[in-house]
Amino acid sequence: SRAQCCVVFSGAGASADSGIGTFRGEGGAWSGVLGTVSLLWGGTPIGWRWTPGLVWSRFVSDFYGPIAAAAPHAGLVALTELQARFGSDNMRFVTMNVDSLHQTAGSEAVAEVHGSVRRFRCGTCGAPAHP
Questions:
Q1: Known catalytic membership, residue 114
Q2: pLDDT for 8-28, tens place per residue?
Q3: How far is CA 43 from each of CA 4, 8, 106, 128, 130, rounded to the nearest angstrom?
Q4: d(Cα 116, Cα 102) in Å, to the nearest integer?
């Protein structure tokens, strides 16, 4: 018998091929001493509370900026074309990435395990925000 559905799991490699740095790989955002300090400070409510301007500016320049500038690579486009052929009911995506490149490529039925950095909310009032 043949499978009726396909689930594609993607991670950092799918983003790296579009020029987005990884978190844990060599030279990644969380690697080395500086990466650990950055994660402990900027990745916690303490850093955001005590130095919101610094953490926000670093987030935008180091993390969000490269994601906002990235474009889907040929592999993501090919997956979108496959999904169009088989239908989003029969082909779905689960991604660990926060860049929404699957959706930018045109894919539907994408589950984002860690959310997306393309959607922001104010930490105080919850209103949508933009970097």
A1: yes
A2: 999 888 888 998 888 777 776
A3: 40, 28, 30, 20, 19
A4: 11
